[in-house]
UniProtKB/TrEMBL annotation:
It comes from marine metagenome. This is Lipoprotein.
């Protein structure tokens, strides 16, 4: 194969990678699944304050890590995502789109830490009593191991294939503190490609859609 032919093949692969990334910008969204309990809206209307517990984080792929290193990364991502949820709800509230109060996540986390709470082993009624809230937002995220732009692009050029490295799966749920039951659940995933999107931009896009479906949302 001549040098010129190699050059043409390389250019075509780069164009292929760019085209896929552009395509994912417009087509990287799935249809969300929304559940509202039969009496969910009526129950939500009685709520005055909402607590947001740290998310459960699953890192989807990547080389095997030391368990301590993996846990540290999961905790870091969880703190970032908890803050994004909190700030987005406050944004909705400041726009008059929600009237419910949201407990400051610093206060939430201090209470959880002081009581040595393991969320996977703690019931909703215990959390509600500790946090003194009317409802609790739980969340789960499945995220990929971040890759650099050049690593992702090189993978595309070598293997002629593409796997989105910014796809995030999100599940939000609200549990009522009186009934101790699920009143609302939202599942969605989104990916916008490797070049023009950050993980934060995808989270904000997911939250924009999810918060509009919450029983607290009021369209102005």
């Amino acid at each position: 194969m001549s040098t010129e032919e190699r050059r043409l093949i390389m250019k075509s692969k780069i164009l292929f990678a760019l085209c896929i990334s552009f395509s994912l910008i417009f087509n990287g969204c799935s249809m969300p699944t929304v559940y509202l309990a039969p009496s969910g809206q009526q129950i939500a209307n009685q709520h005055q304050i909402l607590g947001i517990v740290p998310p459960s984080i699953t890192i989807k792929k990547g080389r095997k890590k030391n368990p301590k290193e993996l846990l540290k990364q999961q905790v870091k991502i969880g703190e970032e995502f908890q803050e994004e949820i909190y700030e987005y709800l406050l944004k909705r509230k400041s726009r008059g789109q929600m009237v419910i109060d949201v407990q400051n996540i610093d206060s939430t986390n201090i209470i959880l830490s002081k009581n040595q709470i393991n969320l996977s082993e703690t019931t909703t009624d215990v959390l509600c009593e500790l946090l003194n809230v009317d409802a609790v937002i739980y969340s789960e995220f499945v995220v990929p191991k971040p890759q650099s732009f050049f690593t992702s692009l090189l993978s595309i050029m070598i293997f002629d294939s593409y796997s989105p490295d910014t796809e995030i799966n999100m599940s939000l749920s609200i549990k009522d503190c009186d009934e101790k039951t699920l009143i609302w659940k939202y599942d969605d995933e989104e990916s916008k490609g490797i070049i023009f999107s950050s993980q934060k931009s995808i989270i904000l896009s997911l939250l924009r859609k999810a918060t509009r479906e919450m029983p607290y949302f009021k369209d102005n």
